Task: structure prediction
Amino acid sequence: MPTRIPAIYIKNVTNFSIFSKKIISLTGTNDISFKSTPSFIIIRPNNRITYNIVIDYLKETEAEFHSFRPHCKRQYKAVIRNLHHSTITTDITNALAELGHSATRVVNIKKNHRPLPIFHVELALKENNKEIFKITKLLHSAVLIEKPHTKRKNPPQCYTCQAYGHTRNYCSQQPRCVKCGENHLTDMCTKDSSLPAKCALCSGAHTASYKGCIIYKKLTNSTNQKRQKFLNDKSPHVVMHRMLP
Result:
């Protein structure tokens, strides 16, 4: 299965003809496609090399853009249960390495500041990642290794530009303060705490992270409607499948 390449969203492109010709000259006509929206020019590279070329060019020209973590840089995640919380994480890493798994991060899980006999593990992407779930003994302890339980999450919010839908790790847009809405990073804000906040998204008298913000409500309502439509469209097929002998 081919690796999915993330799209790149660019703001404030004033001359698309010049911009697109430059991108094509760097990448080639068959390696890229464009899509225009009211807010962004969206570039969809066909491969990782093209993605890196475009990202490097946008950074060199100090363009305002954001993207997402490439699949090749993502980690494979697992949870180890029934391992004593005091177990040294480097011992876990070494034990997994002996079994052919490259752990890049091992963290003990806590609840209400109390350590649990559970460890969150991130592995470098390899063909044998799924084999980790077959491990039943680690460091002379009987363990259960399973996928992390996923729960519905709020849409991610960027701590640089405050927009929803991406994170600061892949954002090169103009910074906006979460407290006062001005064009600077939040850490550099000098607003007096006695003054009201100003939302960078809707200009309301609240921080940009406020879940009562009209922008956040519209986004979550739209997401919930799309999710419900997907379930409604899918359910008849599920019912029919269950009715078949």
About this structure: Confidence is low (pLDDT under 50) at residues 235-245. The first helix runs from residue 16 to 27. Residues 76 and 123 are 5 Å apart (CA to CA).
